[in-house]
Protein backbone atom coordinates (compact mmCIF):
# COMPACT_ATOMS: atom_id res chain seq x y z
CA UNK A 1 0.00 0.00 0.00
CA UNK A 2 1.15 3.56 -0.64
CA UNK A 3 1.94 6.60 1.40
CA UNK A 4 -0.49 9.46 0.87
CA UNK A 5 1.13 12.89 0.65
CA UNK A 6 0.09 16.28 -0.77
CA UNK A 7 0.06 16.29 -4.57
CA UNK A 8 2.78 18.92 -5.00
CA UNK A 9 5.12 18.07 -2.10
CA UNK A 10 8.70 17.93 -3.52
CA UNK A 11 9.29 14.57 -1.81
CA UNK A 12 6.78 13.06 -4.21
CA UNK A 13 9.14 13.35 -7.22
CA UNK A 14 12.04 11.93 -5.24
CA UNK A 15 10.04 8.92 -4.07
CA UNK A 16 8.47 8.20 -7.45
CA UNK A 17 11.94 8.22 -9.05
CA UNK A 18 12.88 5.46 -6.57
CA UNK A 19 9.81 3.39 -7.51
CA UNK A 20 8.15 4.09 -4.16
CA UNK A 21 4.35 3.72 -4.31
CA UNK A 22 2.95 7.21 -3.70
CA UNK A 23 -0.75 8.01 -3.83
CA UNK A 24 -2.11 11.48 -4.43
CA UNK A 25 -4.91 12.85 -2.28
CA UNK A 26 -7.58 12.59 -4.97
CA UNK A 27 -6.97 8.88 -5.54
CA UNK A 28 -6.74 8.13 -1.83
CA UNK A 29 -10.16 9.62 -1.23
CA UNK A 30 -11.67 6.98 -3.54
CA UNK A 31 -10.44 4.10 -1.37
CA UNK A 32 -12.83 2.82 1.30
CA UNK A 33 -10.21 2.50 4.02
CA UNK A 34 -9.15 4.62 6.98
CA UNK A 35 -5.49 5.55 6.57
CA UNK A 36 -3.18 5.88 9.54
CA UNK A 37 -2.79 9.54 10.38
CA UNK A 38 0.82 10.39 11.19
CA UNK A 39 2.09 13.85 12.16
CA UNK A 40 5.78 14.60 11.61
CA UNK A 41 7.19 17.36 13.81
CA UNK A 42 10.10 18.33 11.58
CA UNK A 43 12.78 20.19 13.53
CA UNK A 44 15.57 19.69 10.98
CA UNK A 45 16.77 22.81 9.12
CA UNK A 46 16.70 21.18 5.66
CA UNK A 47 13.06 20.26 5.90
CA UNK A 48 12.53 19.19 2.28
CA UNK A 49 15.38 16.67 2.55
CA UNK A 50 14.07 15.32 5.84
CA UNK A 51 10.54 15.02 4.43
CA UNK A 52 11.75 12.69 1.68
CA UNK A 53 13.73 10.60 4.16
CA UNK A 54 10.79 10.15 6.52
CA UNK A 55 8.25 9.53 3.75
CA UNK A 56 10.52 6.88 2.28
CA UNK A 57 10.71 4.78 5.45
CA UNK A 58 6.98 5.18 6.09
CA UNK A 59 6.07 3.95 2.61
CA UNK A 60 7.15 0.30 2.86
CA UNK A 61 4.05 -1.02 4.61
CA UNK A 62 0.73 -2.62 3.59
CA UNK A 63 -1.01 0.20 5.44
CA UNK A 64 -2.15 3.46 3.89
CA UNK A 65 -0.42 6.33 5.68
CA UNK A 66 -1.53 9.96 5.63
CA UNK A 67 1.05 12.50 6.79
CA UNK A 68 0.70 15.97 8.27
CA UNK A 69 3.82 18.12 8.61
CA UNK A 70 4.26 20.20 11.75
CA UNK A 71 6.67 23.08 12.35
CA UNK A 72 7.45 25.35 15.28
CA UNK A 73 5.59 28.61 15.67
CA UNK A 74 8.08 30.00 18.22
CA UNK A 75 11.09 29.60 15.91
CA UNK A 76 11.16 30.66 12.26
CA UNK A 77 12.99 28.12 10.03
CA UNK A 78 15.65 29.83 7.89
CA UNK A 79 16.76 27.05 5.54
CA UNK A 80 13.40 26.22 3.95
CA UNK A 81 11.49 28.53 1.59
CA UNK A 82 8.57 30.30 3.27
CA UNK A 83 6.29 29.31 0.41
CA UNK A 84 7.01 25.64 1.09
CA UNK A 85 6.22 26.08 4.78
CA UNK A 86 2.98 27.92 4.03
CA UNK A 87 1.87 25.29 1.51
CA UNK A 88 2.68 22.13 3.42
CA UNK A 89 3.17 22.80 7.14
CA UNK A 90 0.88 23.37 10.07
CA UNK A 91 1.55 24.80 13.52
CA UNK A 92 0.56 23.24 16.80
CA UNK A 93 -2.35 25.66 17.14
CA UNK A 94 -3.80 24.17 13.96
CA UNK A 95 -3.53 20.51 15.04
CA UNK A 96 -3.86 20.49 18.82
CA UNK A 97 -7.57 19.72 18.56
CA UNK A 98 -6.85 16.66 16.39
CA UNK A 99 -5.88 13.08 17.26
CA UNK A 100 -3.22 11.06 15.44
CA UNK A 101 -2.38 7.39 15.19
CA UNK A 102 1.33 8.16 15.26
CA UNK A 103 3.80 10.99 15.59
CA UNK A 104 7.47 11.40 14.66
CA UNK A 105 9.69 14.00 16.33
CA UNK A 106 12.85 14.50 14.28
CA UNK A 107 16.32 15.46 15.37
CA UNK A 108 17.56 19.06 15.50
CA UNK A 109 21.04 20.69 15.38
CA UNK A 110 20.78 22.20 18.87
CA UNK A 111 22.79 19.71 20.91
CA UNK A 112 25.25 22.37 22.11
CA UNK A 113 22.39 24.00 24.03
CA UNK A 114 20.81 22.91 27.27
CA UNK A 115 17.21 21.89 26.69
CA UNK A 116 15.77 25.00 28.34
CA UNK A 117 18.02 27.20 26.19
CA UNK A 118 16.41 25.99 22.96
CA UNK A 119 14.15 28.76 21.67
CA UNK A 120 11.21 26.43 21.08
CA UNK A 121 11.68 24.23 24.18
CA UNK A 122 8.45 25.37 25.86
CA UNK A 123 6.53 24.70 22.65
CA UNK A 124 8.12 21.26 22.30
CA UNK A 125 7.25 20.45 25.91
CA UNK A 126 3.63 21.37 25.25
CA UNK A 127 3.55 19.17 22.16
CA UNK A 128 5.17 16.21 23.95
CA UNK A 129 2.63 16.52 26.77
CA UNK A 130 -0.19 16.75 24.22
CA UNK A 131 1.11 13.58 22.53
CA UNK A 132 0.43 11.55 25.70
CA UNK A 133 -3.33 11.94 25.23
CA UNK A 134 -3.71 12.55 21.51
CA UNK A 135 -1.28 10.15 19.80
CA UNK A 136 -1.23 6.35 19.97
CA UNK A 137 2.56 6.10 19.65
CA UNK A 138 5.32 8.69 19.20
CA UNK A 139 8.72 7.92 17.67
CA UNK A 140 11.51 10.33 18.70
CA UNK A 141 14.70 10.55 16.61
CA UNK A 142 18.26 11.62 17.63
CA UNK A 143 18.02 14.96 19.51
CA UNK A 144 14.27 14.43 19.56
CA UNK A 145 14.93 11.17 21.43
CA UNK A 146 17.18 12.94 23.92
CA UNK A 147 14.60 15.68 24.43
CA UNK A 148 11.81 13.14 24.87
CA UNK A 149 13.75 11.04 27.37
CA UNK A 150 14.57 14.17 29.34
CA UNK A 151 11.04 15.57 29.32
CA UNK A 152 9.17 12.34 30.04
CA UNK A 153 11.68 10.65 32.37
CA UNK A 154 14.33 13.18 33.40
CA UNK A 155 17.13 11.31 31.57
CA UNK A 156 20.04 13.77 31.07
CA UNK A 157 22.16 14.12 27.95
CA UNK A 158 25.96 14.28 28.07
CA UNK A 159 28.48 16.03 25.87
CA UNK A 160 30.67 13.55 23.98
CA UNK A 161 34.45 13.97 23.71
CA UNK A 162 34.04 14.14 19.92
CA UNK A 163 31.22 13.92 17.44
CA UNK A 164 29.75 10.44 17.10
CA UNK A 165 29.77 10.27 13.34
CA UNK A 166 29.41 7.28 11.07
CA UNK A 167 27.66 3.93 10.72
CA UNK A 168 27.91 1.69 13.77
CA UNK A 169 27.20 -1.93 14.66
CA UNK A 170 24.34 -2.52 17.10
CA UNK A 171 22.94 -5.58 18.83
CA UNK A 172 19.37 -6.43 19.74
CA UNK A 173 18.84 -6.63 23.51
CA UNK A 174 15.27 -7.89 23.59
CA UNK A 175 14.37 -10.12 20.63
CA UNK A 176 10.81 -10.61 21.90
CA UNK A 177 9.84 -6.98 21.49
CA UNK A 178 7.63 -6.50 18.40
CA UNK A 179 9.68 -3.48 17.27
CA UNK A 180 12.70 -5.78 16.87
CA UNK A 181 10.94 -8.58 15.01
CA UNK A 182 12.90 -9.69 11.96
CA UNK A 183 16.08 -7.91 13.06
CA UNK A 184 19.39 -9.69 12.74
CA UNK A 185 21.34 -10.20 15.96
CA UNK A 186 23.68 -7.47 14.70
CA UNK A 187 22.54 -4.53 12.57
CA UNK A 188 23.87 -1.13 11.51
CA UNK A 189 22.60 2.42 11.94
CA UNK A 190 24.01 5.90 11.20
CA UNK A 191 24.70 8.39 13.98
CA UNK A 192 25.60 12.06 13.78
CA UNK A 193 25.59 13.79 17.15
CA UNK A 194 27.68 15.52 19.82
CA UNK A 195 25.67 14.34 22.83
CA UNK A 196 24.25 11.10 24.11
CA UNK A 197 22.32 9.38 26.88
CA UNK A 198 23.67 6.67 29.19
CA UNK A 199 22.29 3.24 29.92
CA UNK A 200 22.88 3.61 33.66
CA UNK A 201 20.44 6.53 33.81
CA UNK A 202 17.79 4.66 31.83
CA UNK A 203 18.20 1.49 33.89
CA UNK A 204 17.21 3.44 37.02
CA UNK A 205 13.75 4.14 35.62
CA UNK A 206 11.22 1.39 36.18
CA UNK A 207 9.50 0.15 33.07
CA UNK A 208 11.36 1.81 30.20
CA UNK A 209 13.53 -0.65 28.37
CA UNK A 210 16.61 -0.54 26.16
CA UNK A 211 15.87 -2.61 23.05
CA UNK A 212 19.14 -2.12 21.16
CA UNK A 213 22.58 -0.72 21.89
CA UNK A 214 26.11 -0.45 20.51
CA UNK A 215 29.57 -0.75 22.02
CA UNK A 216 30.63 2.40 20.15
CA UNK A 217 27.39 4.37 19.84
CA UNK A 218 25.82 3.41 23.16
CA UNK A 219 22.08 3.32 23.76
CA UNK A 220 20.17 3.19 20.48
CA UNK A 221 16.50 2.21 20.90
CA UNK A 222 14.42 2.70 24.06
CA UNK A 223 10.71 2.03 24.65
CA UNK A 224 8.21 2.97 27.34
CA UNK A 225 6.25 0.12 28.99
CA UNK A 226 3.10 0.80 26.94
CA UNK A 227 5.11 1.44 23.73
CA UNK A 228 3.47 4.82 23.30
CA UNK A 229 6.92 6.43 23.47
CA UNK A 230 9.81 5.14 21.35
CA UNK A 231 13.25 6.78 21.37
CA UNK A 232 15.87 6.16 18.66
CA UNK A 233 19.20 7.93 19.14
CA UNK A 234 20.48 7.36 15.60
CA UNK A 235 19.30 8.29 12.11
CA UNK A 236 17.95 5.11 10.53
CA UNK A 237 16.07 7.29 8.03
CA UNK A 238 19.25 8.80 6.51
CA UNK A 239 19.86 8.59 2.76
CA UNK A 240 23.02 6.87 1.47
CA UNK A 241 24.83 10.21 0.99
CA UNK A 242 23.58 12.19 3.99
CA UNK A 243 26.68 11.60 6.11
CA UNK A 244 28.88 12.53 3.15
CA UNK A 245 27.02 15.79 2.69
CA UNK A 246 27.33 16.56 6.41
CA UNK A 247 31.05 15.77 6.34
CA UNK A 248 31.84 18.12 3.44
CA UNK A 249 29.53 20.79 4.86
CA UNK A 250 31.45 20.74 8.15
CA UNK A 251 34.79 20.80 6.33
CA UNK A 252 33.72 23.91 4.41
CA UNK A 253 32.74 25.55 7.70
CA UNK A 254 36.23 24.85 9.04
CA UNK A 255 35.02 22.45 11.74
CA UNK A 256 37.38 19.86 13.16
CA UNK A 257 35.50 16.86 11.81
CA UNK A 258 36.70 13.29 11.31
CA UNK A 259 35.71 11.09 8.36
CA UNK A 260 32.51 9.22 9.26
CA UNK A 261 33.42 5.77 10.57
CA UNK A 262 32.58 2.58 8.69
CA UNK A 263 31.15 4.59 5.80
CA UNK A 264 33.60 5.25 2.96
CA UNK A 265 35.47 2.15 1.72
CA UNK A 266 39.07 2.44 2.97
CA UNK A 267 38.08 5.84 4.45
CA UNK A 268 38.53 7.26 0.96
CA UNK A 269 36.00 10.02 0.31
CA UNK A 270 36.38 9.45 -3.43
CA UNK A 271 34.53 6.15 -2.98
CA UNK A 272 30.79 5.87 -2.72
CA UNK A 273 29.73 4.98 0.83
CA UNK A 274 28.74 1.47 1.82
CA UNK A 275 25.03 1.37 2.61
CA UNK A 276 24.25 -1.29 5.21
CA UNK A 277 21.44 0.16 7.31
CA UNK A 278 18.46 0.73 5.03
CA UNK A 279 16.86 -2.74 5.28
CA UNK A 280 16.75 -2.51 9.07
CA UNK A 281 15.58 1.09 8.89
CA UNK A 282 12.65 0.03 6.74
CA UNK A 283 11.94 -2.88 9.08
CA UNK A 284 12.00 -0.69 12.19
CA UNK A 285 9.55 1.86 10.83
CA UNK A 286 7.29 -0.87 9.43
CA UNK A 287 7.26 -2.68 12.78
CA UNK A 288 6.49 0.58 14.58
CA UNK A 289 3.59 1.36 12.25
CA UNK A 290 2.21 -2.15 12.46
CA UNK A 291 2.68 -3.25 16.08
CA UNK A 292 2.69 0.01 18.02
CA UNK A 293 0.39 2.12 15.87
CA UNK A 294 -2.00 0.08 13.70
CA UNK A 295 -2.49 -2.79 16.14
CA UNK A 296 -3.08 -0.42 19.07
CA UNK A 297 -4.92 2.59 17.67
CA UNK A 298 -8.73 2.69 17.82
CA UNK A 299 -10.66 2.79 14.56
CA UNK A 300 -12.22 6.08 15.63
CA UNK A 301 -9.43 8.54 16.23
CA UNK A 302 -11.39 10.52 18.79
CA UNK A 303 -11.24 7.46 21.09
CA UNK A 304 -7.48 7.88 21.64
CA UNK A 305 -6.78 8.82 25.24
From TrEMBL:
Active site (catalytic residues): 142, 235, 237
Pathway participation: Amino-acid biosynthesis; L-methionine biosynthesis via de novo pathway; O-acetyl-L-homoserine from L-homoserine: step 1/1
Any one Gene Ontology cellular component term annotated for this protein: cytoplasm
Record-annotated site: Important for substrate specificity: 192
GO BP term (any one): L-methionine biosynthetic process from homoserine via O-succinyl-L-homoserine and cystathionine
Locations listed in the record: Cytoplasm
GO molecular function terms attached to this record: homoserine O-acetyltransferase activity; homoserine O-succinyltransferase activity
Annotated site residue numbers, Important for acyl-CoA specificity: 111
Presence of keyword Amino-acid biosynthesis: yes
Keywords: Acyltransferase, Amino-acid biosynthesis, Cytoplasm, Methionine biosynthesis, Transferase
Organism in which the protein naturally occurs: Saccharicrinis fermentans DSM 9555 = JCM 21142
Entries under HAMAP family matching the protein: MetA_acyltransf (MF_00295)
Gene3D superfamilies assigned: 3.40.50.880
SUPFAM superfamilies: Class I glutamine amidotransferase-like (SSF52317)
Family recorded in the similarity comment: Belongs to the MetA family.
Function text: Transfers an acetyl group from acetyl-CoA to L-homoserine, forming acetyl-L-homoserine.
Protein name: Homoserine O-acetyltransferase
Organismal lineage: Bacteria, Pseudomonadati, Bacteroidota, Bacteroidia, Marinilabiliales
Residues that hold substrate according to the record: 163, 192, 249
Reaction(s) the record says it catalyses: L-homoserine + acetyl-CoA = O-acetyl-L-homoserine + CoA
Amino acid sequence: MPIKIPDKLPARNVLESENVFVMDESRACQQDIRPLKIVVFNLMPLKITTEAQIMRVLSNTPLQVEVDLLMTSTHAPKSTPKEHLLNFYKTFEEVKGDKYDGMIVTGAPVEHLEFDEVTYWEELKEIMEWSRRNVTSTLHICWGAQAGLYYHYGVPKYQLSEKLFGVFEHRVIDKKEPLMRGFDDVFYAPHSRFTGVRAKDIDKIQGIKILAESDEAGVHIVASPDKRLIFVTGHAEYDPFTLREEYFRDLEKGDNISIPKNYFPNDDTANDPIVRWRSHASLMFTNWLNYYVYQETPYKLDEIN
